[in-house]
Design a protein that fits this description.
alpha+beta, seven-stranded antiparallel β-sheet, rod-shaped
Length: 661
């Protein structure tokens, strides 16, 4: 039974290996570029993506009011070309251009989509000597380009240019009215860390629309006003500085030493977390203000760096940046020249405040961490140092280029993550299916094994019963013959009653036959009760030869004992009983003095030859031997050699149709 279970489980392992190979073949071909990766590799890559996403700026949409961006005139169809050109006014070494889409919120749901972002376009750069320009990027639907809500970053080797042009090859429709046009929220052109397209002139072909209104204007294409809020990863946000109502102090910054800068960036007080917003995005921003620079703390040598007045809400935004002549100074002041009045309110409820003040030199903020103070005595509601702490309401303030690149990187990772999730889902579904089939196969095999075990036990019991019946039949034959012989000896004893010597001889023969009959009964009973009888066929045959032929000369030679040991138990017992019957017949009928036994076993045949020197005179196989020959499925014949005696030859084929019998 151990061999049986071992074979069954080997078959089970082969089936599972086959299913694994089939599943591997099935997984190939439908996962695209991910088909060559294992499940563990896909899961590892997904974990790496999640870890990197935790380090990137988040996509947070702006709230409230503000400029939307640039819109071209409507054209008849998608193939009508539209060109937009930004004049940098001088040659700049540029190496990156960022296109920011205008976003549209689907009114039927919460989905945000790019609105009228071109499906196909080219980006060229050039200067006055190269009006045709150099192509630095080309995108089309055929190449797999699909507009998204994230910034599109175009990197290229550093090149000198004085203008940037966008030429469309395929337009998309404006969502609200289903007409073809070009719409962009912002175009950023970077020279190192600096956006050199800020507030530069914009031209368009076939021209600007006649209906241009406040939220849509060519100048909003280069005002650095994007549809996102700067939301850096990791750090928590800080409060903005905001004066109390009616208080308009000057805001001062001490750089600690004379430093050079060429740009001023102000972050408005972020209050989009109120629903609805209490202000239209102009909280704390004076209607007109000046930025002064000085080398003395009392600003006695002050000079005006920026004088800005805004007319509509579209002129300001969450992040406002201005380019100024390169300046070197230690102290900087923001002076409220004209407070922001509240319409319909008689009392002054305006105030001044910003989330951060940045003074930029080659894209680097030199004001971060510097001292800041109010230019008026009194206890402020919030400390002025919030103006230079490097944080906004969401977290750490990023460089503009880094921010745009992190958003673009987030888009690439999220696209890859989506493909990974699809691949992982497909593999998990396949694994679940394989597991289901494996369970079914295992259950079927277990049921089959249990059924085979029961059938094997039944057949084994049936085989044991047949063996016992044969042993019992052998006992019956031997008892019958012995009892018949005892009866004949009894009759002979009566006839020898007057002859003492003859009578004693007859009685000795009766006693000997009685003892032999008792031994035969005990031997058969032992064979019936012992399941392991004849496990060692050769030992049993030698034991019977020594027992039955103890008064005769006998020789035994056996070849192929290893083959004999592998025979089925029933075959061993039938072969043993056949041989024992031969010995009994020799003892009873032949009068032999010498017996020779030869047993030869080969992988396909067993030959048993029993020769005696008696005068049995038997020309046909006795009925008892013929019956045992049939039970074995063998062939037997008797021959009488010329030199005398009798030879019984039994031949048994071990294989039939290639199977072991």
């Amino acid at each position: 039974m151990v061999n049986f279970f071992d074979g069954a489980f080997r078959k089970l392992l082969k089936v599972l290996l086959f299913l694994r190979i089939v599943s591997g073949v099935a997984c190939a071909g439908d996962l695209g570029d991910l088909s060559g990766y294992s499940l563990s590799e896909l899961e590892s890559r997904r974990e790496m993506i999640h870890e990197e996403l935790d380090t990137l700026a988040k996509l947070s949409l702006r709230g409230g009011m503000g400029s939307v961006g640039f819109r071209s005139s409507f054209v008849k169809n998608a193939n009508n070309p539209v060109r937009v050109q930004i004049d940098l006014e001088k040659k700049e070494l540029i190496d990156q251009i960022v296109l920011v889409p205008t976003l549209w919120r689907d009114l039927t749901g919460d989905e945000v989509v790019p609105d009228a972002f071109p499906a196909g376009f080219r980006v060229l750069v050039g200067d006055a000597s190269n009006k045709a320009g150099k192509l630095i990027g080309e995108f089309s639907r055929e190449s797999g380009f699909k507009p998204g809500i994230y910034p599109l970053v175009i990197d290229f080797p550093e090149i000198s240019a004085s203008w940037v042009r966008i030429e469309t090859t395929e337009l998309n429709q404006l969502t609200e009215i289903r007409k073809y046009m070009l719409q962009l929220a912002e175009v950023l052109v970077f020279s190192g860390e600096t956006n050199v397209a800020l507030h530069k002139p914009v031209s368009c072909f076939p021209g600007f629309p006649d209906y241009v209104t406040s939220p849509f204007d060519p100048r909003f294409l280069v005002d650095e006003s994007v549809p996102f809020s700067m939301d850096a990863a990791g750090d928590e946000g800080r409060h903005a500085y905001l004066s109390i109502i009616g208080d308009h102090p000057d805001l001062n910054i001490d750089l600690g030493a004379p430093l050079t800068f060429s740009r001023i960036r102000l972050h408005a007080v972020e209050q989009q977390n109120t629903v609805p917003q209490a202000y239209a995005g102009d909280l704390g921003i004076p209607r007109r203000f000046r930025v002064l620079g000085a080398d003395s703390r009392d600003f006695s040598d002050a000079r005006v760096l920026l004088d800005y007045a805004w007319e509509t809400i579209y002129d300001i935004g969450p992040i406002m940046e201005w380019e100024i002549p390169e300046t070197t100074c230690r102290y900087v002041k923001i002076k409220d020249v004209e407070p922001n009045p509240s319409i319909g309110v008689t009392m002054d409820i305006s105030r001044i405040g910003f989330s951060e003040v940045e003074l930029l030199d080659q894209g680097k903020n030199i004001a971060v961490g510097k001292a800041a103070w109010r230019g008026r005595k009194g206890r402020p509601s919030r400390p002025p140092k919030l103006l230079t702490d490097g944080y906004n309401a969401f977290g750490k303030i990023l460089n503009l280029r880094i921010w745009m690149n992190q958003l673009a990187r987030r888009h690439d990772l999220e696209v890859e993550l989506g493909a990974l999730e699809v691949a992982l889902t497909a593999q998990h579904m396949r694994q679940a299916q394989i597991l289901t089939w494996s369970r079914r196969v295992i259950l079927t095999l277990l049921v089959s094994i249990a059924a085979l075990f029961l059938v094997s036990r039944i057949l084994q019991r049936k085989n044991e019963t047949k063996i016992r019946h044969r042993i019992a039949a052998n006992l019956h034959d031997e008892l019958g013959a012995n009892l018949h012989a005892i009866g004949m000896l009894g009759d002979l004893a009566k006839d020898s009653f007057d002859h003492r010597e003859q009578l004693e001889d007859t009685m000795d023969r009766i006693r000997s036959l009685t003892e032999r009959t008792g031994k035969a009964v005990r031997n058969c009973a032992h064979m019936i009760q012992t399941e392991g009888v004849c496990d060692d066929l050769v030992a049993e045959m030698r034991r019977d030869v020594d027992r039955l032929l103890c008064d005769l000369n006998h020789e035994m030679s056996i070849e192929g004992e290893e083959i004999l040991s592998r025979l089925k138990r029933r075959t061993k017992i039938d072969l043993y009983l056949f041989y024992k019957e031969c010995l009994v017949n020799i003892i009873r009928h032949s009068g032999a003095t010498h017996v020779i036994t030869k047993l030869v076993a080969t992988p396909g045949l067993i030959a048993l030859e029993v020769h005696d020197d008696g005068d049995g005179g038997v020309e046909e196989i006795p009925l008892s031997l013929a019956r045992r020959t049939r039970l074995l499925g063998a062939k037997a014949r008797i021959s009488m050699p010329e030199n005398g005696g009798t030879t019984v030859l039994l031949t048994l084929r071990l294989r039939r149709f290639g199977l072991l019998l």
